[in-house]
Amino acid sequence: MKEGPLMEGWFIILVSACVCVIVRAIFSLQTKTINTPPGPLHIPIVTSIQWLLKSFSQLEPILRNLHAKFGPIVTIRIGSQRAIFIADRTLAHQALVQNGSLFSDRPKALAASKILSSDQRNISSASYGPTWRILRRNLTSEVLHHSRVKSFSGIRNWVLQALLVRLKSDSQSNDSIRVIDHFQYSMFCLLVFMCFGERLDEGKVRDIERVQRQLLLGFTRFNILNFWPRVTRVLLRKRWEEMLRFRQEQEDVMIPLIRARKQKQGKDEGVVSYVDTLLDLQWPEEKRKLNEEEIVTLCNEFLNGGTDTTSTALQWIMANLVKNPQVQERLVGEIREVMCGREDREVKEEDLQKFPYLKAVILEGLRRHPPGHFVLPHAVTEDVVFNDYLVPKNGTVNFMVAEMGWDPKVWEDPMMFKPERFMNDEGFDITGSKEIKMMPFGAGRRICPGYNLALLHLEYFVANLVWNFEWKVPEGGDVDLSEIQEFTVVMKNPLQVHLSPRI
Ligand code: HEM
Questions:
Q1: pLDDT of 290 strictly over 80
Q2: Is the CB of 308 under 6 A from ligand 1?
Q3: In the chain, domain spans
Q4: CATH code given to domain 58-501
Q5: Atom of ligand 1 at shortest distance to CA of 106?
Q6: 33, 66, 137, 387: which one has the fewest Cβ atoms less than 10 Å from its Cβ?
Q7: Is 302 near ligand 1, meaning CB less than 6 Å away?
């Protein structure tokens, strides 16, 4: 008699458990669980730290192996975050172009990035929404609008002439010249003028170059500060202080230039600079103008976007012209046909459209050596099922730019420098809107807004550099195409050349 209630209790538990199992079984038949893309084994904390300590260049060969094992879309886990990597151009097109509204967000900024981006108030880190739209529209419809870009042609000529003088004087006293510093300085002169609207003296431009590059080159070292900020603020206190000091130095250099521009507002002199447009801008929701720190953040983005990427690409292209003299000669031949009979030594911007081979050389340079091997990390606006996998909202989605440009299914001898491959293509579409064959500027809604300016700078400088000098390997030297990751992927051994004037 005593066992009665006990038995009854057990019976109820047993029946409930059976019901649960049956209900779950029915549900799992109906709703197939969708997993994130496959990836390597994750051991909490240990693997996260391992990934975090790797630079992008160390990550690349590992990802290549993971793609070979798991397919074109893989996941790695860093803490609770999932980073998805897409190596296939068709999937990239599906995500970025066909499903652009879903895949155009950016991940939430973590501790250090939050400071450097003024809490995601710049174009590249803003979420896909009104802040991004207003800032991007301001850049593309103002300073990057083709009529404005044209208004800067005088400064391009000025910078070019200064570069040619420097190279000439260097080549008279040296058999072998390191050119990257000249390229970087030239790009800074150009972008600093577009940004602040002033022809600054060399000392000031060098100052801006210094504060920009120290933050840029610290990029990988400072990245770790994004994770576990409470711990790193103690353990990596010096690094935190260094980053904040660099940011302060940047403000100290730029704020006087912004104030000077503000003083000139409305006086309608000279060109309209990027800062002028930012001083006029308003945050619609807060109904206030941008503050100085926010303007510094946007100037920082503008200068980084337009200098390091372009001088890196310029160096890679010139390196390939030195390594492949027959390509250089064909290019000079093309320019000669247009320039013959002309007195001046300048290939003008209006001439550039007459040079299909020049365009092919630039495209081949960007395909073979994209300055960024990955686009900036994207995020999805909501959980998305993509290619039968779950892409979670709180993860990042990354696209492997270099892999796409080197895909042997698309490009014959992909590692060779052969501009001729672009000569058959009637106007190759670098934006990838119909199909992605390579994407050095990204694709879709977040595509680099500066790609036309970058192409103009590359075409103008490459044409004039080969037209004015013969670029050769110095006696006993070589052109080493090994890569190393800085902010962009640069030449591990910077290009050294022997220059002889062509006249
Ligand atoms: C050879 C030169 C350049 C290369 C290879 C390059 C490449 C890229 C790439 C790969 C992205 C990321 C796209 C994505 O996340 O999907 C990007 C974004 C961006 N680039 Fe460039 N870029 C270059 C020049 C420039 C120039 C000249 C400017 C401006 C003056 C610029 C400003 C930007 C900005 C503001 C973004 C963020 C766009 C957004 O998030 O909406 N870039 N660029």
A1: yes
A2: no
A3: 58-501
A4: 1.10.630.10
A5: 40
A6: 33
A7: yes
